[in-house]
Amino acid sequence: MLYRGDAAKKSHRHLFSLDEACYRSAGEDMVGSVLSVDLKDVARLHISVCWEMMVRMALWTSGPPLIHDVLALLRKAGVADEELLPFVAADVRDLFPWLYYGKRFDVLRKICNLAKAKTESKLGNKKLLVYCHLVSDEAEKIVASNL
Fold it and tell me: Average pLDDT, stretch 113-127?
């Protein structure tokens, strides 16, 4: 289980109660952290992260995602172009509160599904199942997942 931040670990442990040895802290580069895990004997990989890290997974990028890439991802998740107009010059982090407080959990789940699909395809292990959990640092809970 890879997590980024205390809120991600706490919220995941609250729901899944895995042994402490199963948890591994990820670095700032989520893609690099995933690629560095020895997955040879692993059947399931849980990833529990905040909004920006989940977007990085869905876009499979090591650095901060570009706003136009994130907006394209949101379009793919079903958000209309006119809804995204106010965010064309926004910071990527500004999108999560809009989605979360706007109760757009369907979109957040789709982002988790896109991150899962991208990660599984990049890892190339057809037997490995990836579970992506999106965490709100403020609420310290999982707010969306591909489960």
Answer: 93
